[in-house]
Specification:
InterPro entries: Aldolase_TIM (IPR013785), NMO (IPR004136). The protein has 315 residues and is an alpha/beta fold. Helix 3 links the parallel strand 2 and strand 3.
Length: 315
């Protein structure tokens, strides 16, 4: 037991990332039932859809689960009210300042963890009163920090400026990486990519299988003029790279991105014209098949234990 497992009432200090078009109730419930903390990804859900997923998740697990809410999305008041009305106990906020909503959530008995990409933002999150911090490095998939600080550099930097429970994220897909994060000062990990490619993920099977074939260097952080996002190589990414190389404006990039591009790629499985988001850790999974969440959790725990035993023998 440590502060992360105690805070969320879970067996293992493993949190599943709340990823758009991947993190529905099946994935969140499966992670929670396997001893971690499952998160619903509100970023790809209309308010009524989120309500439905909260209720289905509660029916599928008696364990702790939470909701990830990107603060840059619209209908925030409605989403927050649904979370409170439905009795959700844990909210992970990201992509914005937690200052506005943390007290509001606390007044309704909801604990708040906030995702940051720098030690400066970690200090601001602590000042806002959050209960825990997720420090997410440059390796992560989806939307990312402009600072491009890697997880190995970010975790000790954040640990040095905050006393809050610290969760490491970005590039963590193995038990060895979990142990490394703990050594650097994290008390738990948040894993996205590995869970995005499981059987219970709501992502399209074509997307999952494509990501399991990726090699080192097949993802890049782009669209920094808008909101930085890590993209997989395909026709759409090539178009983004060409536009950015030509000095495209923010408005031109928005036009290229259009509406529903991530849904088209991740949920619908358009591997060429969709926005395919996944982390660098996908290359570590090359050749693996799509596994169940239970199998992934078992592997992570066993790998972490073996890595710890190996380090003890070496030391």
């Amino acid at each position: 037991m440590n502060r992360v497992t105690s805070l969320f009432g879970i067996q293992y200090p493993i949190i599943q990332g709340g990823m758009v078009w991947c993190s529905g109730w099946r994935l969140a419930a499966a992670v929670s039932n396997s001893g971690g903390l499952g998160l619903l990804g509100a970023g790809s859900m209309h308010p009524e859809t989120l309500k439905e997923h909260i209720r289905k998740c509660r029916a599928a697990t008696s364990c702790s689960f939470g909701v990830n809410i990107p603060l840059m999305y619209p209908q925030m008041e409605e989403i927050m009210q649904i979370v409170a009305d439905e009795g959700v106990k844990f909210v992970f906020t990201s992509a914005g300042s937690p200052k506005k909503w943390t007290d509001w959530l606390h007044q309704r008995g909801i604990m708040v963890a906030h995702v940051v990409s720098s030690s400066r933002f970690a200090m601001k999150a602590e000042e806002a009163g959050v209960d825990a911090i997720v420090a997410e490095g440059f390796e992560a998939g989806g939307h990312n920090g402009k600072e491009e600080t890697t997880t190995m550099c970010l975790i000790p930097a954040v640990r040095a400026v905050t006393t809050l429970p610290l969760i490491a994220a970005g590039g963590i897909a193995t038990g060895e990486a979990m142990l490394a994060a703990r050594v650097l000062g994290a008390e738990g990990v948040q894993i996205g990519t590995r869970f995005a490619l499981t059987a219970e993920s709501s992502a399209n099977e074509a997307f999952k299988n494509y990501c399991l074939s990726l090699e080192e260097g097949d993802t890049r952080l782009l669209l920094k003029k808008l909101a930085p996002v890590r993209l997989v190589r395909n026709n759409f990414r090539s178009a983004v790279e060409a536009a950015e190389a030509a000095g495209a404006t923010e408005e031109e990039l928005r036009m290229l991105l259009g509406r529903g591009r991530a849904k088209r790629g991740i949920f619908d499985g358009d591997l060429e014209e969709g926005e395919l988001e996944i982390g660098q850790a996908s290359a570590l999974l090359q050749g693996k098949r799509v596994q169940s969440v239970a199998m992934v959790m078992q592997e992570l725990v066993e790998e972490s234990k073996r890595a710890w035993e190996k380090m003890q023998a070496v030391l």
